[in-house]
Amino acid sequence: MVYTFFGSPLQRKMASHIVGYPRMGPKRELKFALESFWDGKSSAEDLEKVATDLRASIWKQMADTGIKYIPSNTFSYYDQVLDTTAMLGAVPERYSWTGGEIGFSTYFSMARGNATVPAMEMTKWFDTNYHFIVPELGPNTKFSYSSHKAVNEYKEAKALGVDTVPVLIGPVSYLLLSKPAKGVEKSFPLLSLLNSILPVYKEVIAELKAAGATWIQFDEPTLVLDLDSHQLAAFSAAYTELEPALSGLDVLVEKYFADIPTESYKTLASLNSVTAYGFDLIRGAKTIDLVKSAGFPSGKYLFAGVVDGRNIWADDLAASLSALESLEAIVGKGKLVVSTSCSLMHTAVDLVNETKLDSEIKSWLAFAAQKVVEVNALAKALAGQKDGAYFAANAAAQASRRSSPRVTNEEVQKAAAALKGSDHRRATNVSARLDAQQKKLNLPVLPTTTIGSFPQTVELRRVRREYKANKISEEEYISAIKEEISKVVKIQEELDIDVLVHGEPERNDMVEYFGEQLSGFAFTANGWVQSYGSRCVKPPIIYGDVSRPHPMTVFWSKTAQSMTSRPMKGMLTGPVTILNWSFVRNDQPRFETCYQIALAIKKEVEDLEAAGIQVIQIDEAALREGLPLRKAEHAFYLDWAVHSFRITN
């Protein structure tokens, strides 16, 4: 049966595609359902009901909007790589799985651990703030078709009248993102398992074909990395082996997060079994030049990721349409599909829920739901059915953002532009600074300290919440925070810690706390993005030039220092972390925004020094992350961070 609420079956769909969509729901419905289930407060059936409703609403939204290529199997109860591990039956032995369809017990044990065994490792998904569960493989890993999720979700959508494109993590990327299991030599060649996992992929493909699928999407994001000839050969071998199974299907291979290197492009273009190529044209803008210079395979489709899947800015539709028209001249009429640059899971869900956001700033934004509309509008315009009113409104919003006085601060721009190479270097060498520090601080050879924050109790959160809601006075708030700082100082002195911290009881989040006190930042009420599992974060939005109107931490650091004779650290979040854990403006290079944040933090350092704080810690948590795509950029930022702050004098 075709459900008419998905629009008329006769409605002509333009060549539009969405790589993937957020899973948590507009109000984090999945998060709360998961945590209720984990706490034993609801049943598996309750959890499945929430998940089913979310999937249906997502498919309905895309179908009603007019998207032609709608993805399925991008929903996950925890992580898409873990879903692939379940599909392949690659369950580590410690979970005592005995075979059969993998259920919630084994699945969530792998994700979260249980009373007797730890969880599998979690790490960054490329240079995003999402984390995936790392597969643990070895020569003795047994593979079997153990989760029919991809086929079941395709059938589920089809029963609702929506023909979808099932999405699978590609076999080569799955292996390249894995690690040797415990007890296996670190040098174990993971790609040697390719022939062991391909039979499972063939089974999945066969079932999808039998269910009526006509397209299938393989996500192979590792194609944007610098792969060696052996790794590239694995792609050729994998898709050659799968070619008979894929016969009769249109096959899309998706890559995202960066430009595709020339050799990877050549390898991809040579695959006979692949019908279409999906490129991220936001973070891989040079890919267009590569397509022009290297040529595009005749008769193939290009899925052009022109709508940013990783940020919250409204697309410049006129600019994107111009780029699409240029690409269409290369790939051929009818062979270009408008798409997102990557899955929309990396952006917030729906701008409609931001009822308190400043109206001008809101007009500049597009969350996942709005980006679906943008993709369809571009596809229609490319097909000669341009919505003039929609494009005009978009152009007006773009012009408003460019001309808004709240975006540009001339003083900040001049300060950043005036930076010279010498500003990135300390005037004194390390040994001289160490001597000066030791004379002033008189610390032991191996001084002790802590990283910074102490546990945030329920009572502390209540105090902050009530102060923010004007339910308690400023005097009551300050008194409560001072009392907590005093406890923290006393604990450290009793433990004979050399350099103390104040515990940060006044802070909500290491980025949000500073963003709330810096100009150029905005905050949402429901702009949640999945970090891992049920964990969601609400990144600040950097919409304009960043400056520090007033000191941010000096009062609390001075207060804490007055409670002890020992050195009290000033605690600051560094510019690289603030940058990478925010939605960053896209109207200027990222390094310029990073410099502006760094200058603001530098002023805070100077004020802390003037207030008598002798040790200042700059937290750069983002620098610990696996960022394979942006090493040069982060080295550039680190150079600034290290050399621009006078940590102690």
TrEMBL record:
Pathway: Amino-acid biosynthesis; L-methionine biosynthesis via de novo pathway; L-methionine from L-homocysteine (MetE route): step 1/1. It comes from the Eukaryota. Keywords: Amino-acid biosynthesis, Metal-binding, Methionine biosynthesis, Methyltransferase, Transferase, Zinc. It catalyses: 5-methyltetrahydropteroyltri-L-glutamate + L-homocysteine = tetrahydropteroyltri-L-glutamate + L-methionine. Its cofactor is Zn(2+). GO terms for biological process: methionine biosynthetic process; methylation. Catalyzes the transfer of a methyl group from 5-methyltetrahydrofolate to homocysteine resulting in methionine formation. PANTHER family: 5-METHYLTETRAHYDROPTEROYLTRIGLUTAMATE--HOMOCYSTEINE METHYLTRANSFERASE. Belongs to the vitamin-B12 independent methionine synthase family. This is 5-methyltetrahydropteroyltriglutamate--homocysteine S-methyltransferase. It comes from Oryza meyeriana var. granulata. The lineage of its organism: Eukaryota, Viridiplantae, Streptophyta, Embryophyta, Tracheophyta.
